[in-house]
Design brief:
With 312 residues, the protein is of the alpha+beta class. The protein has helices at residues 12-34, 75-89, 127-140, 220-225, 237-240, 301-308, and strands at 65-67, 70-72, 93-98, 101-106, 111-121, 160-161, 166-167, 178-185, 190-197, 200-201, 230-232, 241-245, 249-255, 260-279, 282-297, 310-311.
């Protein structure tokens, strides 16, 4: 596995993903070189074309109306209520035990999962490397426990980024950040709000539509530049390493009487295209992969215990 010198303050998830990516990149190139690919080149419109994809709406568009006793006449109304709910839920705390020690964390804690799909080298995939991916991920990525995204912690007092400059106890999402949204009345006193933020290349925390909604990877370019075994035959890092956030959706189910979130699911979709990559003695290769990163709320008691020794 390639050595990566982490940038100061770089997110743990960012570092993990690039350990995974470089390892898979090297393994895949080697496998494809020494064996004939079993799968033909991907057709147009699949992950290989992802970097050039348009910002496509994946959910039903908004319809004005009254849902669960709440009046929504515009996308601005939906986002305003989402921000209100988000901020309120990040004021709610609860007592926990973490490995026997008393802690105060967010009342609503979530899990996280990561999958890598459509790993291609020169537009081709290989059955052998596809079998390796789950094992490599399981050995490196361990799910954490966090508050509603964007969030970097389960402790409200530590839920900040950039040395405290970004306070993630408050949502900074705006209507201009939203590509599509909708509201559904569940008929049980709750409503479900779904939001798809606008696509973004190389998203940064709290600095763009994706970064104000998901746990984005942040400054990937500097991470890639620090990988000693990886270089490029031509062009700059920005030209050859394109990280496209598009298509991800978050949905929260809210009790409209209390404004408490009773359930939530966020899926962040990231497509990475690499061109003209040199990995050790292997020269000028193109690669791509999709990262599917999910957060579910509330996390199960078993997940909390298994991941961090936390009990409610």
């Amino acid at each position: 596995m390639a050595k990566v010198k982490a940038k100061t303050g770089l997110s743990k998830l960012n570092r993990i993903l690039f350990f995974v990516f470089v390892g898979l990149l090297i393994a895949t190139i080697v496998i494809i070189i020494v064996s004939k690919p079993k799968v033909a080149q991907k057709a147009e419109g699949t992950a290989e074309a992802g970097a050039a994809a348009t910002d496509e709406i994946k959910i039903e568009e908004f319809k004005a109306g009254t849902y669960g006793g709440k009046d929504f006449q515009s996308v601005e109304d939906v986002v305003k209520y989402y921000v209100e709910v988000f901020d309120y839920n990040k004021t709610l705390t609860a007592p926990y035990k973490e490995n026997g020690e008393s802690k105060t964390y967010y009342k609503l804690l979530g899990d996280e999962s990561l999958t890598i799909e459509n790993l291609l080298i020169e537009g081709q995939e290989n059955a052998m490397i596809n079998k390796l991916v789950p094992g490599i991920l399981d050995g490196i990525f361990k799910g954490n426990v966090k508050g509603l995204p964007p969030s970097d912690n389960r402790d409200p007092n530590l839920d900040t980024r950039d040395d405290g400059k970004i306070d993630e106890r408050h949502s900074h999402l705006t209507a201009d950040d939203v590509l599509a949204c909708n509201v559904k009345d569940n008929g049980d006193g709750t409503i479900s709000i779904s939001i798809q933020p606008k696509a973004q290349i190389l998203s940064m925390p709290d600095a763009d539509p994706q970064g104000r909604f998901f746990n984005v990877l942040g400054d990937i370019s500097s991470t890639v530049n620090s990988i000693s075994v990886l270089s490029f035959s031509e062009g700059t890092i920005d030209e050859n390493f394109v990280v496209n956030y598009a298509g991800g959706v978050g949905t929260i189910k809210v009790d409209t009487k209390t404004n408490e979130v009773v359930e939530a699911d966020y899926e962040m979709d990231v497509h990475i295209d690499v061109k003209h990559a040199n990995v050790t003695v292997i020269k000028d290769k193109n690669a791509s992969l999709d990262i599917i990163y999910k957060n579910h709320f509330p996390a199960s008691d078993q997940y909390l215990k298994d991941m961090k020794g936390i009990t409610r």
